[in-house]
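Last lecture ended with a question: if I hand you only a sequence, what can you say about the shape of the protein? Today we answer it with a concrete record. The protein is Shedu anti-phage system protein SduA domain-containing protein. Below, first the input exactly as provided, then the predicted structure, then a couple of comments.
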Amino acid sequence: MNTRTLWDKFTKANKDIIDKINIWRNYMNLYEVDYTKPTGKYAAAIKEYNEFWSQGQIDFSKASDPIEKFDDEMRKFIYNFNSKFPNNVVWHYHRDKTSVDLEVNALRKVINSAKNEHDIQDYIKKNRKWFIPASIFKEYNFGHKETYLFPEMKLGSSMQADYVLCGRNSDGYSLILVEFESPASTFVLTDGYKLSASANSGLGQINQWKEWMESNNTTFFNEHKFTEKGINVPITRIHYCLVISRRNQMETNDRDRKNRIISESTNLNIINYDRVCDYVSNLDEGYSTYR
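The predicted structure:
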């Protein structure tokens, strides 16, 4: 039996596994285009742009930035290619208010009909709506200088974050590890004290991440090539965000318990899905409230 026949038998028998692997690879890169491999006009534009800015001091009375003559698609390719993670850059320029409103209305419909967090995750991933988790940057004071998004990033061999957001401000880089739980769940049970199963699951997962990161942060940054790109993030700048429930399900007891957990934790935030919608609705202003 030749190699080709053996491979065909293997792929047929393991189709589901291979499909999942391919889907995971695609999700780790946000785009269908590979921004690490420019060809043709893109390669020429990148060369022209980079040569212009490598001249040193430039007399702008005699020369103009070549970026000005390129359309948005070309600008995006240049920006992504020159970034630290070309295929994970969150691109947010020129997003107009009309398109933002359409997107947030579509998102609300998905959330309203979702039975659990997987319905929302499927919507984001199948349609590459990466701006939805990226909008969580608006909860923080970083991400206005650089923004990266990594879906399903591994923490060791047995855990993964739904999303890891990496953003930079004048103080350096910070991370946000995001866990999505069900929008249909309350935060506490009807007795007003015990946490719901979704809240327990989400907070338990985040606690595991925190414990692992505190002992393995060097391993994490090496494995995911942050270190080789000059990105070093201290534990104090690693944040955790749980997305759960809806605003109209957050009764006084829910809000009180949620706020107490946040105040007693380090770098933890808990937001509901309506807050995410609020952030998406303001994406015409970018991914940060800071400028």
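Comments.
1. Residues 17-27 have pLDDT under 50 and may be disordered.
2. The beta strands are 146-155, 159-169, 172-180, 238-243, 268-271.
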